[in-house]
Design goal:
Number of helices: 11
Radius of gyration: 25 Å
Structural class: alpha/beta
Shape: globular
Strand content: 5-15%
Strand order of the largest sheet: 1-7-6-2-3
Distance between the termini: 51 Å
Largest sheet: 5 strands, parallel
Length: 316
């Protein structure tokens, strides 16, 4: 820390930093760590989507110091903690829900789910609702086929726990539906009814619902985090958290980061292919509507000038 500078304590909050080049986002991180360094023994925490991104980030931060603001690094990359979002969030869940016996590993985690399904499938496939799965089991090497089927279903249910938690909640309540983004429920087709039936079978095998699924642990975390004051934050939270180089985040992860931002500083570094604010872009359809409201019934929207292209959306 430069001489005479007071100790910087990151202010909790959620910040989104946009740039159309990863190098620009890296330079922002370099600038922030130079201007607002953490305490000497504090670790900077980064959420990344791959080991390759973590390595690129570390190499960028370790570039030699230089007077050129758009190229220099910190000269060293130390005290960095690069984690995958899923692993980090599960540890956060356990910190906030310490009194609720959250296991170190999720009971319905994908790796465990494969083995549980491998064991349950033989007794399930004899029931009529699971008839669509029987076609996959026809042929030689039945155990190999059962393992492959268990892997496919485990991958599907793992994604549901992250992206379609509302579906699983409905299935637990014996409502065999899928739910749209607008909250509209649509009954499942006959050939898909095995999915909610199998999910309920898995929960019964665990002895009940409880906090067995990631979706339920996530909801319990949100309730707990939103009910705590800033002074009641659990010990061990990072003072500052960067989300760097992640191309997409499920809603569940964004909800968790938003709740966490009440206690720590969350900085989402977004690689945005457009240098302009996307919400300002207007489609031709909206332009026609605006013209009609002004009393012009037959206006034609022509080709915009190159300098105005950012304000018009592609019709595709």
């Amino acid at each position: 820390m430069p001489a005479g500078r007071t100790q910087y304590l990151p202010e909790p909050g959620f910040h989104a930093i946009h740039a159309n080049q990863m190098e620009s986002l890296l330079q922002f991180v370099v600038w922030l760590q130079r201007e607002q360094p953490l305490a000497p023994l504090e670790q900077e925490t980064f959420l990344v989507q791959s080991n390759g991104m973590a390595q690129w980030l570390k190499m960028g931060l370790a570039r030699p110091l230089t007077s050129e603001a758009d190229r220099g690094g910190l000269g060293i990359a130390a005290s960095l903690n690069c984690l995958f979002p899923a692993r980090f969030l599960w540890d956060i869940y356990r910190q906030f829900l310490a009194g609720e016996s959250i296991p170190e590993e999720l009971l319905l985690d994908k790796s465990r789910l494969v083995w549980r399904l491998f064991r349950l499938l033989p007794q399930c496939l004899s029931e009529p609702v699971f008839a669509p799965l029987n076609g996959f089991m026809k042929g030689g090497e039945p155990e190999k086929r059962r393992w492959q089927l268990a892997e496919k279903i485990a991958d599907l249910l793992d994604q549901y726990q992250v992206f379609r938690a509302d579906w699983l909640e409905a299935w637990e309540e014996n409502r065999d539906v899928v739910i749209s983004a607008r909250g509209e429920e649509k009954p499942l087709g006959q050939e898909q009814l095995w999915q909610p039936a199998l999910w309920r079978e898995l929960l019964n095998d665990l002895g009940g619902i409880g906090l067995s699924s990631r979706a339920r642990v996530h909801q319990a975390f949100l309730r707990k985090a939103r009910g705590l004051s800033r002074a009641q934050k659990p010990a061990g939270l990072p003072p500052r958290l960067f989300v760097f180089g992640v191309s997409s985040l499920p809603r569940q992860t964004l909800e968790a980061l938003d709740a966490l931002a009440r206690f720590t500083q969350v900085i989402l570094c977004v690689n945005n292919p457009c240098e302009f604010y996307w919400a300002d872009i207007i489609s031709d359809k909206e332009l026609f509507k605006a013209e009609r409201k002004r009393g012009k019934q037959h206006s034609v929207v022509g080709d915009p000038a190159d300098t105005d292209l950012h304000a018009r959306s592609n019709p595709l």
